[in-house]
Amino acid sequence: EEEEERVLVSEHSWRPCPTSRRRVRGCLEWVKRQLFRVGEDWYFLFILGVLMATISFAMDTLVTRLHAAHMWLYGEIGDIGVLKYLSWTLYPMALASFSTGFSQSITPHSGGSGIPELKTILMGVVLEDYLAIQNFGAKVVGLTCTLMCGSTLFLGKVGPYVHLSAMAADYLGKMRTTVTREYENKFKQREMLVAAQAVGVATVFGAPISGVLFSIEVMSPHFAVRDYWRGFFAATSGAFMFRLLAVFNSEQETIAAVFKSDLKIDFPFDLLETFFFLLLGAICGIVACAYLFCQRWMMVAVKKNRLTAKLLATDKPVYTVLMVLLLASITFPPGLGQFMASRLTMKEHLTSLFDNRTWGLLAPNASGVAEPGGLWQEWNHPSATIYGTLTFFLLMKFWMLILATTLPLPAGYFMPIFIYGAAIGRLMGEVVALLFPQGLYSEGPPRPIIPAGYALAGAAAFSGSVTHAVSTALLVCEATGHLGHILPTVLAVLVANAITQKNQPSFYDAGIIVKKLPYLPPIRSRHIASYRVAVEEFMERRVVALAKGDGFQEVLVALDASADAEYPVVESTGSPTLVGTVSRSQLVTFLQSHKHPQAPQGEKLDTVGTLGDDCAIEPIMLQFSPWTSLHQAYHLFQLLKLQRVFVTRSGELVGAVSRVEVR
């Protein structure tokens, strides 16, 4: 009794006022019930959008200020060539090497864009530690350092930011299960990941509608309509917060487009210009095919080459420093960089290419003195016309972009191809304006060609064809706030996609192929003969199966024969009728609880027992027939996130089909 009194006194001394605490706890429970009456998903999606928008804005602000400081230092050095070269090259080399070393030292999953792995996760494949919270910090720091390198590396942040949003959504999903005291639901986790994809795009471009559509096209072969509102709500919250922070920071007077253009035109394009927009789409499609082929070849070549493979395996920062030194030397402004507008940031590149004026008319009257808002002058060189600088930019950036994709640091690859497509469109628009200075109609009032409209269409067509997406047509409209060229832009995107999808896998699918991720690639062949391919032609016929009456010895042999996660169970050895499956963990437990027939007699374990008596046999929910077509099996694997399906003929087990066979 004295011991009990001492315990009670101890508890009361550590937890005073039990009545007040019960009242406070009851009030908190009431508040939680009232808040979650409309559904807890709204709150977590709002938090996800606001959190990622804040991080994105802070990242952009820090990158902008450090780039301004670097350009100030570069300008204050004077005309000393060696110092200017060192200032231009050492800055990105130090940042890129730190980005690689820091991110890779924490987790090897932080390199690249992250979209190929995220697509694999959404297909039901578990990738260990890919969405771990420590990866979040490594990728934020590494991506910020990568963006600080500026146009020297010419890399963006769309892909890594989608990865960051997915990691934040996964962590918020775990917090949600803690707050609501529910068990962890894989379907709820996938719903949060789907919303995170849209948030990642929306908080970079401030474009919620195209962010949702782009995430559906690029990430999900099958999209559940019930996830539609989640994506739109989270993306709208993120995009609104992202633009609202710009107003609070006195960057803008009101909420406006990220790449605000001055395309205030009453007559955006002539009907006959549709032909040139279609031609632009065809050019972007052909160039995209060449880019995708060369990029995939380069990724494989870097892994096969002995020197680069050794550097990437042991000294990743050294490989990064060497590649960045090469790229920075080429973009050095007094050298070749003066023909590539290398002093502009990536945002300034895009803003200048979307300039409403016709550069071919401005160049003869240029005074050589920098004008306010005269970013186009970076493209005008005395010894080369704007056509020459745009052409040289496209030729050099083609292989420089491909080389930059081999760097083992956190980086996005959508913004570079977006700017590259805008440069293709700008060049074509300037050429058309040169050929037809009064417009395509010689009679009536002059209706001049607007090269900026071609830049919009080129950006959407090239980036859309590389990623196999059509929503980029809407993305350029949301990002610039201009809808006048939406129809020719859509036509250019459709033509470019028709060419690329026929000949090359998308940029992200190519990453899956090179990395050999367990992902189902799309069936390229649409020939009628492919629909006649049946499961029995490619199924695995040698399947390790167990009978209900099997004992210790048979189970041990089956576990040694294969490392499958589950094993089919048939009625008996003489009657292979499939009755269900049993997991590998249950079989291991079965072996641990039973004694081997040849074991010593001293062990206190069961000596008899069969699989059917001591193991829980799960019923078969889905099975294929040998005559199930390839396309049917492929769509079922995608839709239901299947890993392995057994094949039966009249109820008898005849084989199995896994992702390996379907691929």
TrEMBL record:
InterPro entries: CBS_dom, CBS_dom_sf, Cl-channel_core, Cl_channel-K, Cl_channel_volt-gated, ClC. Gene3D superfamilies: CBS-domain, Clc chloride channel. The gene is Clcnkb. One of its GO terms (molecular function) is metal ion binding. CDD domains: CBS_pair_voltage-gated_CLC_euk_bac, ClC_1_like. The keyword Transmembrane applies. It is a multi-pass membrane protein. This is Chloride channel protein. Residues 539-598 form the CBS domain. It is found in: Cell membrane; Membrane. SUPFAM superfamilies: CBS-domain pair, Clc chloride channel. Its main location: membrane. It holds the Pfam family Voltage_CLC. Keywords: Calcium, CBS domain, Cell membrane, Chloride, Chloride channel, Ion channel, Ion transport, Membrane, Metal-binding, Repeat, Transmembrane, Transmembrane helix, Transport. GO terms for cellular component: chloride channel complex; plasma membrane. Belongs to the chloride channel (TC 2.A.49) family. The keyword Thylakoid does not apply. PANTHER family: CHLORIDE CHANNEL PROTEIN 2, CHLORIDE CHANNEL PROTEIN CLC-KB. The chain crosses the membrane at residues 42-63, 193-216, 228-248, 269-298, 318-337. It comes from Thryothorus ludovicianus (Carolina wren).
